Description:
Layout: E1 10-11, H1 14-23, E2 26-30, H2 37-52, E3 56-60, E4 76-77, H3 83-86, E5 91-95, E6 119-124, E7 135-138, H4 145-156, H5 162-175, H6 186-197, H7 202-210, H8 215-228, E8 230-232, E9 237-242, H9 245-249, H10 262-265, E10 272-279, E11 282-289, H11 297-302, E12 306-307, E13 311-317, H12 321-331
Parallel strand pairs: 1-7, 2-3, 2-5, 3-4, 5-6, 6-7, 9-10
Antiparallel strand pairs: 8-9, 10-11, 11-13, 12-13
Helix pairs in contact: 1-4, 2-4, 2-5, 4-5, 5-6, 5-7
Manganese (II) ion is lined by residues 38, 96, 125, 144-145, 175.
Amino acid sequence: MPTMSDPETTAATAAEIAAEWMRAGSILILTHERPDGDAVGSALGTAEFLRGCGKRADALFPEMLPKRYTGFARAARFEPLSPQMCATYDLILVLDCANPARIATGGMTLHDLEPASCRVLNVDHHRGNTVPGAVNFVDSTAAAASLLTFEIARLTGEKIPQEAATLWYLGITTDTGSFRFANTTPRVLFAAAELLKLGAEQEKVVNAVYFSKPRNQQLFEAELVEKFLKVTDDGKIAYAVLPEEFPVRHGFDMRDSEGVIDLLREIDGTIIAVLAYQRGGEFKFSFRSKERSFPVGPLARRLGGGGHEMAAGATMLLPDAAAAEEFILNNVPGVLQIESEK
Ligand code: 5GP
Ligand code: MN
């Protein structure tokens, strides 16, 4: 059987993935580190769906989940991955993860999996996905991995439980910024409508994602806007560089920072938003674009990171906040000048 390090990989169709799911008796689902709403929604939604089909299915989260998602984690295992654990499942399903280095395993590399005789399926919506599954299904036209996994589940003809519908609705909601971003296509809205018909708990999702902000996060955001937010290029670029002590001082965990970049994106006149925060000796950069003619994907890829054209990220070794700001000022304005990308 192929394993994670098997060089022979196949590009599959959604129907082939559906057939793989139905053939397996037990499935372990992995997703990317620092999970966002789509990672959580696609992994746990698929686990709930497969459990409903009578299978043993778990979504693995070696790290703590962002607080807002803890109420959705019924089908989760919170422990590091091990070859022994893999050997107890027929299939390892990797979701929403663009490359092998970003799979949340709690320490193991893909290579460590070799002794386990497990079959790896890779389902994702990131262009240029390099996860070496035995079978790979990558559709970068899909707004969310939650959308893809819902569509695959529908192909099986099996019942879709309410818990799965809620989780997939969560992932689609967060990866489209609640149906605001350019990836909000008719396909997304049809899927969202179907999920609501299946009983997806819209109120639970929207309350968790938008109406559960802790007070310390509000104060953190207020100081971010007042002291750290800067603009350049006539306001077309809004950026903030956060030294490590700043979130710490507010008792704010940056793993809960999904959506914080919208403080920059929402400003009138902003085209590109950049949020950088210090993590040990490196800075984590998030890039967002509001106009399709100025994508941020190419910049992130050039820096060794990745993501989507309008939402991407990268990590850079930089000594301090001043160096991170200089880096932004030297590299981001170029995004507004890339004629060939227009
Ligand atoms: P965020 O800025 O919210 O962390 O991520 C935005 C998008 O870029 C997501 O699709 C995420 O997976 C991707 N991304 C963020 N950081 C990195 C990175 O360091 N490497 C890669 N390959 N992708 C990243
Ligand atoms: Mn996603």
